[in-house]
């Protein structure tokens, strides 16, 4: 079972448009609403793969009630924590060439008592969890150390933690030793305070974050592939992708694939890359099912191509 924690969940409304023109009335060619937030996306991918998952998240207002209902429809056990503010609604506009325009709402401000309620919900639900995946930005009202506190409490209870966040929240949590962190290239560069131009630069940055406390680093390098750096060594993997339709939630699908495949080693990395590659070929924030996966399209190796330039270097 994978337990996910999403401190700032959302309802994600996606509109597909024939084109995005400012100052005009646009008619969508398709639209959908999905339960959103990085941890909830992980739960959706875990459930789509046929595994049990529980999603802990603060939920408020009619939007929170709809979020809980949608989670149930996706086969996810919702562990909603009631809060005063309303769950946010995010909007994604998708153009035919897969260009995305995202509008993310701020979300509710959590009180100290509500923040503690979320931590308590994690504690009461975590006994049966193989992994706890803590994902996304922190909402207003939660200090940067909130994830660090969650990691510390969960470790004391014997749980393994995968953390996908950035900035000050990531920096603070590293001191508590999360078992796996999952930065993208931008977040990796931000964490070490220097630009990344090659895969070798990303490897050095990942090694530095391990020295600062992370047990393992699963770094997404966008179209260039993914890098796993752990105690057993470093591994690199890529996948062929025919057509990119939407990259919303692709990183979350990757984390789900990594954790459901054991959360360590080249086999888990290949699963992560296969899930991410499948996700970008689906509409909106749809999560891949086993039928969507193509492990034969994945190439993985312990020989990391250190000199390979990143397609989109991080300045």
UniProtKB/TrEMBL annotation:
The keyword Translocase does not apply. It is an enzyme of class 2 (transferase). Its EC number is 2.7.1.56. It comes from the Bacteria. The keyword Lipoprotein does not apply. CDD domains: FruK_PfkB_like. Residues 15-289 form the Carbohydrate kinase PfkB domain. Keywords: ATP-binding, Kinase, Nucleotide-binding, Transferase. Gene3D superfamilies: 3.40.1190.20. InterPro entries: 1-PFruKinase, PfkB_dom, Ribokinase-like, Tagatose/fructose_Pkinase. It holds the Pfam family PfkB. GO terms for molecular function: 1-phosphofructokinase activity. Belongs to the carbohydrate kinase PfkB family. NCBIfam families: 1-PFK, pfkB. This is 1-phosphofructokinase. It comes from Streptomyces bacillaris. The lineage of its organism: Bacteria, Bacillati, Actinomycetota, Actinomycetes, Kitasatosporales.
């Amino acid at each position: 079972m994978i337990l996910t924690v999403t401190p700032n969940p959302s309802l994600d409304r996606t509109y597909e448009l024939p084109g995005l023109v400012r100052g005009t009335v646009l008619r969508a060619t398709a639209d959908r609403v999905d339960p959103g937030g990085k941890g909830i996306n992980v739960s959706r991918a875990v459930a789509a793969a046929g595994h049990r998952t529980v999603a802990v998240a603060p939920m408020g207002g009619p939007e929170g009630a709809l979020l809980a209902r949608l989670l149930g429809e996706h086969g996810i056990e919702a562990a909603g924590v009631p809060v005063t503010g309303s769950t946010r609604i995010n909007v994604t506009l998708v153009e035919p060439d897969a260009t995305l325009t995202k509008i993310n709402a701020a979300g509710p401000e959590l009180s100290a008592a509500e923040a503690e309620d979320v931590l308590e919900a994690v504690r009461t639900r975590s006994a049966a969890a193989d992994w706890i995946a803590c994902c996304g930005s922190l909402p207003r009202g939660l200090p940067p150390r909130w994830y660090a506190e969650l990691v510390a409490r969960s470790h004391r209870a014997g749980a393994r933690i995968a953390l996908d966040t950035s900035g000050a929240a990531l920096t603070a949590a590293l001191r508590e030793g999360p078992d796996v962190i999952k930065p993208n290239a931008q977040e990796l560069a931000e964490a070490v305070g220097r630009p990344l131009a090659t895969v070798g630069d990303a490897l050095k940055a990942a090694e530095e974050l391990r020295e600062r406390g992370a047990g393992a680093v699963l770094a997404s390098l966008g179209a260039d592939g993914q890098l796993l750096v752990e105690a057993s060594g470093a591994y690199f993997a890529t996948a062929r992708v025919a057509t990119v339709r939407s990259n919303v939630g692709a990183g979350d699908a990757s984390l789900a694939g990594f954790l459901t495949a054991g959360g360590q080693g080249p086999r888990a990395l290949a699963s992560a890359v296969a899930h991410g590659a499948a996700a970008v070929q689906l509409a909106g924030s749809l999560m891949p099912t086993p039928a969507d996966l193509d492990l034969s399209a994945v190439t993985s190796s312990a020989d990391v191509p250190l000199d390979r330039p990143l397609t989109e270097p991080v300045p």
